Each structure stands twice: as structure tokens, then as C-alpha cells.
Amino acid sequence: MKSTPFSKIYKKSRPDPVLTALHDELRLAQGDLALAYRQFDQAVDPELVESCVYQINAVKARCNYLIRAIKERSPETLAAAALEGNAAWI
């Protein structure tokens, strides 16, 4: 089979192992967040409720970080940034 200029564009590339690891870590963090919410729902002691709130906030911060890292590393995001030139991502 002859290689054409377009064959490189359509050739499926290997998945980025770092991006895959970030997705896996995000799934785990989402599970941790669900657990933290369940613990909060069952907490009755004020100190335990406060502890659950801190845990929820910590896991949410980790999820937000992972989402940002995935977006920055994602090929779709990189391609969109290249199309828009000097666009500022918020």
C-alpha cells in the first residue's frame, strides 16, 4: 500500500500514556468524591460533618486539577488552540 500525504493524517496514533493515566486517576477521584458525599450524608457528629466537608473540598480540587491537566494534554484541545491562533484559554 502506497503512502499518500493524507494517510498520515488519518492514521490512528497510539494513545498518550500520560493522558490515559490522567483519565484513570480522574475516574478514581470521582469514586472518592462519591464516597465522601455518602459519608457526609451519614455523618451526625458536627466534627465528623466538618471533616467530610474538608474531604469533599479536597477531592473536588483534585478533580478540577485533573480535568485541567486532561484538557491541556488532549489532542482535540491542542488542535483547537492551533486553529484559533493566540487564543486565551480560561
Overview of the molecule:
By secondary structure, the protein is mainly alpha-helical. The chain has one domain (16-82). The protein contains four helices and no strands. The protein has helices spanning 7-10, 17-42, 46-73, 75-84. Helix 2 (17-42) runs antiparallel to helix 3. The protein is elongated.
> Can you tell me the overall shape?
elongated
Tell me about the biggest sheet?
none
SS-based structural class?
mainly alpha
Number of strands: 0
Helix fraction bin: over 70%
Count of helical stretches: 4
Indicate the proportion of strand residues: under 5%
Q: In angstroms, what is the radius of gyration?
A: 20 Å
Count of folded domains:
1
List the helices and strands in order.
HHHH
Question: What is the mean pLDDT?
Answer: 82
Low-pLDDT windows of residues: none
Distance between the ends: 44 Å
Brief rundown of the structure:
This protein has 4 helices and no strands. It has 90 residues and is an all-alpha fold.
Using brief descriptors, characterize the structure shown.
90 residues; mainly alpha; 4 helices; 0% strand
